[in-house]
Design a protein that fits this description.
With 293 residues, the protein is an alpha+beta fold. Helix content is 40%, strand content 22%. It folds into two domains: 44-110, Thrombin, subunit H, CATH 2.40.10.480; 124-286, Glutaredoxin (3-Layer(aba) Sandwich). Strands 8-10-9-11-12 form a five-stranded mixed β-sheet.
Amino acid sequence: MKPGPSAPLILIAFSLVIPMSFQVSAAENVEWETVKTLQMETPSRDVAFSPDGSKFFVLSETGKVHIYSAAGEPEGTIEVGKEADQIRVGPKGDLLILNSRRNQSIRIIQLEYVQDIDVSGSPFKGPEDAPVVLTIFDDFECPYCARLAPLLDQVVKQYPEAVKLVFKHFPLRNHKNAVKAALASLAAEKQGKFWEFHDLLFANYNQLSDEKIEEIARVLNLDMERFKTDMQDPALVNSIRQDMMQAVNAGVRGTPTLFVNGKRLQDRSMKGFQGAIEKELETAGEKKSKSDS
């Protein structure tokens, strides 16, 4: 009588069979559907996603990078040349890395997204038709916003004819008095004292309360009855909600977040402001020269 299979052989046999049965079961439980099909004008060479998944980039054989939202909506096209055959996205989503195996080269492109931010009706400083619009999304309980406020005043004073500073509300959930402070600032605006109220809110950012907000209103000699009535105005609540929706659409995640003519500003030093503003003024001058010629 021949001996039966040894224990190790039996275990090996089971190890080969069991995973296969699991794979079949898992595949049978997958549900899927095509949510969108993009019809490209030319064949694509490579595709890459941004790290946050909000965009994807298609490198075409004609030397273009087509940018799409995660939902497949076109957001722009960049001419990069036909040499690249592979595309990658940097860790922050603002760099494209184009690899060319034929030329043995790697090209890095800095992306600068321009956000269309509606500033109509928002509180502002500076000329209404200034060539440079500096838009800030702020929270009155944010310590970083409070520290930045004096620097923003310096920027406006340095460019009195060129810069318009626009204030947008983005009260954070973890700041319990931020929404009420935002409403109070807009109620103060109805009496022509938004920026005065703005300054005192930031001066007291770490001790805001119902009492402190009312105290600030009295210090500024506001009509208290009108002030309290305006704070209950649904239109002011809607104004803050609209600001927050714009912030989310522009990719704002925290405060303070700044845009210079719709381009996000990362360097919040005076040097950073000056560089961004001078660049926009130079661009505006070039456009004017072309239109005059």
